[in-house]
Amino acid sequence: MRTFVLVSVIALAGCGSKKEPATRTDTGSGSAGSGSAVAKPTVGPETSAPKANNLALPKGDGTPPKQSAKALDQAAFEKLAKHELPGFTPIVRNVKNQLDVRHVTQRPVLATTVTIAPCFDCLPMELDKWKAKEAGLKMLLVEELRDRPDTIWELGTTELHGQPLIFTYQFGYSFGKDDQGNPEGAFSNAYALYFSDGKNQIRVVAEYKDDPVTKEDLKAIAPREDLEKLAKGFLDFYTHAW
Q1: Which end of the chain is more exposed for a tag (fewer CB within 10 A), N or C?
Q2: What's phi and psi for 210, nearest 5 deg?
Q3: What pLDDT, in 10s, does the model give residues 88-130?
């Protein structure tokens, strides 16, 4: 089984599998940073699993997320886009008037997507106000999984060094065959974290972003607690860098 070992490193930038037949998927499918994928597996040769990977979690200085002085401008986004963190490959997806950067591990691929933008209609960290927008947040789930009774969807509050944050967690899995008898399916395992200080807002989505595996292995490769640690680590880092 492929595993990750999570290690906290201050001021720096963790989270295997009993094999199904080897599969391929478009690991960028679903909405941006969604944690969702739709796949049509194809049978192929088995490959040996690599050894455990040690990943250094990003971290701030141990204080709550820093309150930004003003709305971030283009120069600030370009500066934030230059951060490279040990164990992760950055993929800058957008840096025009906002930052959208994805940090990915080696296989098995875990992706942490950070989106930062100035506030337009930012919500305070109050759960009742976010619940009123829950339908929009749930669009992160692909339609194939959204209304399945066995799909896990949670919206709640958590905290980072005393600062309240909003989170969502989603886990969905469905594989079968299409009308022509070809295998197809969808899966999602993602933890999203939200914070706004009234001037700028940040969303961090930590997710499994690799080939399909069994439902049990999907949980084992990327446990919820590891995805939460990844999301909090990146939010901690970037809110001390903005």
Answers
A1: N
A2: -125, -165
A3: 999 999 999 999 999 999 999 999 999 999 999 999 999 999 9
